[in-house]
Amino acid sequence: MRLHVVNHPLVSHKLTVLRDQDTDSPTFRRLTDELVTLLAYEATREVRVAPLDIITPVGPTTGVYLAQPKPMVVPILRAGLGMLDGMMRLLPTAEVGFLGMVRNEETLAASTYAERLPEDLSGRQCYVLDPMLATGGTLAAAIRFLTDRGADDITAICLLAAPEGVANLEKDLEDLDVPVAVVTAALDEKLNDKGYIVPGLGDAGDRLYGVAH
Ligand SMILES: O=P(O)(O)OC[C@H]1O[C@H](OP(=O)(O)OP(=O)(O)O)[C@H](O)[C@@H]1O
Ligand SMILES: O=c1cc[nH]c(=O)[nH]1
Ligand SMILES: [Mg+2]
């Protein structure tokens, strides 16, 4: 598994405001959107392209165009939905599939409550959107779901990752014969005893959309 921490002063600036407990929901949503577009630029470095012949006003040339099949973008509900627009700004012709997943806050185990994706993802590059990689349970299950359907290249975009979650994910996916990359704005210090990322930003879903229950 490849981990890429995007090191850029604008990313760090926006992330600092995002983490601040006094940042309100509208600002949190806007910063999430902006950060994802910056992360997506790095995350799509390996997006597949094919040659394309075109004619400019001056003459013929060969450029590149996004290859078929189109990339699949998969936001993990609920919090990943806050990352979708920022991603689609960069990949407007991508297809979008949805996974609804929730972590049990007692056991920290992830479960899937909704799914809307093609049955066959053979040969597809997938971009998974989830702001928080905490224990890694949610992302591991999501990646497994996609590779079980045939996805052959996975890149996850996260705002924050915990070292414990990255290690768990690496171990969980050891047997996987598919390239997996994680692109994140920061690798934080640790998880606390409730499985929250420290210093983190709190509950991403609640900060985007309000308290769930
Ligand atoms: O790495 P993990 O330990 O699995 O935790 C990370 C998951 O927890 C959060 O989702 P949550 O269960 O709070 O659902 P929500 O997005 O609906 O708030 C977050 O958005 C991730 O999906
Ligand atoms: O810190 C964390 C951990 C899991 N989910 C969140 O939203 N935040
Ligand atoms: Mg949540």
Would you write up a description of this structure?
It contains six helices and 13 strands. The model has no long low-confidence stretch (mean pLDDT about 95). It is globular, with a radius of gyration of 18 Å. It is α/β, with parallel strands linked by helices. Strands 1, 4, 5, 6, 7, 8, 9, 10 and 11 form a nine-stranded mixed beta sheet that branches. α1 packs antiparallel against α2 (about 25-45) and α2 (about 25-45) runs parallel beside α3 (about 85-90). The protein has one domain: Rossmann fold (3-Layer(aba) Sandwich), CATH 3.40.50.2020. The chain binds 1-O-pyrophosphono-5-O-phosphono-alpha-D-ribofuranose, uracil and magnesium ion. Magnesium ion binds near residues 205 and 206.
Average of pLDDT: 97
The count of β-strands is 13
- CATH level 1 name: Alpha Beta
CATH-scheme architecture: 3-Layer(aba) Sandwich
What labels would you give this structure?
213 residues, alpha/beta, Rossmann fold, 6 helices, 13 strands, globular, binds 1-O-pyrophosphono-5-O-phosphono-alpha-D-ribofuranose, binds uracil, magnesium ion binding
List the helices and strands and how they pair.
Layout: E1 2-5, H1 9-19, H2 25-43, E2 49-55, E3 60-66, E4 72-77, H3 84-90, E5 95-96, E6 98-103, E7 110-116, E8 125-129, E9 132-133, H4 137-148, E10 153-161, H5 163-172, E11 180-187, E12 190-191, E13 197-198, H6 204-209
Question: What's the short story on this structure?
Answer:
This protein is an alpha/beta fold and 213 residues long. The protein contains six helices and 13 strands. It is an enzyme of class 2 (transferase).
